[in-house]
Design brief:
By secondary structure, the chain is mainly alpha-helical. It has a single domain, classed as MFS general substrate transporter like domains (Growth Hormone, Chain: A), CATH 1.20.1250.20. It has 19 helices and no strands. The radius of gyration is 22 Å and the shape is globular. About 1% of the residues have low confidence.
Length: 448
């Protein structure tokens, strides 16, 4: 990962320790701050607005099903598009252009949610899907820039700082939005419905405004042409050709592939806990106010601990840092199994906040260090696909165990398997070998 900027730095020692010593690093992590508005405000608030307002004329079960299908369809579209677009971006040197393209889809769609009115569920589904496609697609190309700007010795700190700022940004905006919705009269807003619509509009504005630093300070990596690439005018054909070549070469990058499989499994467990915590808490009688408070607690606790995990990964290695988080998640499942009171739920939220960002940030940076830079967008497209599909098997297991045993507690305990199996596969990953093969591929492509 030697191609990171060599710009001299006059940044403070603290910024250096956090992996934020250069302008391009600080600009890169700001996109985590920017897009977190969608994941916090839209993902948390829009489902309620969709069911209670946009789809108010539909039975609640039907409305929920259409919302779920819209989510799944958007993720599938990104999953099919991203690998080919990633290959094109690597070949043409167009990572920032691709990011800008998805931004141009997602931001207006998110802003358009403001105009969704009662009964307009079709319009709501369309803009919601476009917003999801925009944010998920942009992340592929955002993350693919990481190995180009961060040196090997700082990549974990940079990735962790991105997650930390994402938690901070999303936490601040979510707190403000929830205050708007709970107390609209304090802000001169007519009612809660108007406050909800303004919250969705604020997410679009936040996402757009805080994306500017990346485009200003992060340089576009040059086109990465390998010896086997022949000049062609048809970039779509180039994309499919390079993608096919990567599939044939996956055996060469088997350590990175093994990491992806491990990530798919343990991240599925993480995602299931995130998605099912609120329904499970509601089921056992946790008050709605406590549920909201716990969500905010996760956001703000995640800030220092995400930074901390970056430093820990530098000190003891990325794999060991991820293992710390997986062992903590084993404890979280046990706490969840025995949870009965609001205090227990807040303890659970505290534990999740301590490790959620660290596990995902260090997984991202570890993967970045084990892939060839000239195929970073293509490989991060695969990473994005695995990230999006993580969350399919876990909820299925959760639902199956509930149906078989009649208990959500047993379903929580069943998630232990995801952390055990994912951890076992992670233990098999030879990080040094994966990095060696990636650097060798770069040398063969003339990029060393």
């Amino acid at each position: 990962m030697a191609a990171a900027s060599t710009t001299s730095t006059t940044a403070s020692p603290l910024l250096d320790r956090l992996g934020l010593s250069r302008p391009e690093l600080r600009a890169w992590v700001m996109y985590d701050w920017a897009n977190s508005a969608f994941w916090a405000t839209v993902i948390q608030i829009f489902p309620v607005y969709f069911i209670s307002v946009a789809a108010a004329d539909l039975p609640p079960a039907v409305a929920s099903a259409r919302y779920a299908w819209a989510t799944a369809a958007a993720m599938l579209i990104v999953a099919f598009m991203a690998p080919v677009l990633g290959a094109i971006a690597d070949y043409a040197g167009a990572k920032k252009k691709m990011l800008a393209g998805f931004l141009a889809v997602g931001v207006p769609a998110t802003a358009a949610m403001y105009f969704v009115d009662r009964g307009e569920w079709v319009f709501a589904v369309v803009v919601y899907m476009l917003g999801n496609i925009g944010v998920a697609g942009s992340l592929v190309f955002y993350e693919s820039l990481l190995p180009h700007i961060a040196r090997e010795e700082e990549v974990h700190r940079v990735s962790a700082s991105g997650y930390a700022l994402g938690y901070l940004g999303s936490g601040l905006l979510m707190a403000l939005n929830l205050l708007w919705i709970q107390k609209p009269e304090w802000f001169g807003i007519p009612d809660r419905e108007s406050a909800t619509r303004l919250s969705l509009l604020s997410a679009a504005a936040w996402w757009l405004v805080f994306s500017f630093p990346l485009f200003r300070w992060v340089s576009e990596p040059p086109p990465a042409r390998t010896p086997g690439d022949a000049p062609r005018l048809n970039l779509v054909r180039v994309g499919f050709s390079r993608l096919g070549g990567t599939f044939h070469e996956l055996r060469r990058y088997r350590q990175a592939l093994l990491l992806l499989v491990a990530f798919l499994i343990y991240n599925d467990g993480i995602g299931t806990i995130i998605r099912m915590a609120a329904p499970y808490g509601t089921e056992i009688g946790i008050p709605p106010g406590a549920l909201i408070g716990a969500i905010l607690l996760v956001q703000f606790v995640g800030i220092p601990f995400a930074f901390l995990f970056g430093l820990i990964a530098d000190r003891i290695g990325a794999k060991r840092a991820i293992f710390i988080s997986l062992f903590t998640y084993l404890g979280i499942t046990v706490v969840g199994y025995y949870m009965k009171t609001t205090l227990h739920f807040f303890i659970l939220a505290l534990m999740v906040g301590m490790v959620q960002g660290g596990a995902q940030a260090i997984s991202r940076s570890l993967f970045a260090s084990m892939i060839p830079r000239h195929k970073s967008a293509e490989f991060f497209a695969f990473y994005g696909v695995f990230d999006k599909f993580a969350g399919i098997l876990g909820p299925m297991v959760f639902a199956t165990v509930i149906e078989a045993t009649g208990s959500s507690r047993n379903a929580i305990l069943a998630l232990i398997a995801f952390f055990v199996v994912g951890g076992a596969l992670l233990a098999m990953v030879d990080v040094d070998e994966g990095r060696r093969m990636a650097r060798q591929a770069e040398a063969e492509a003339g990029l060393a």
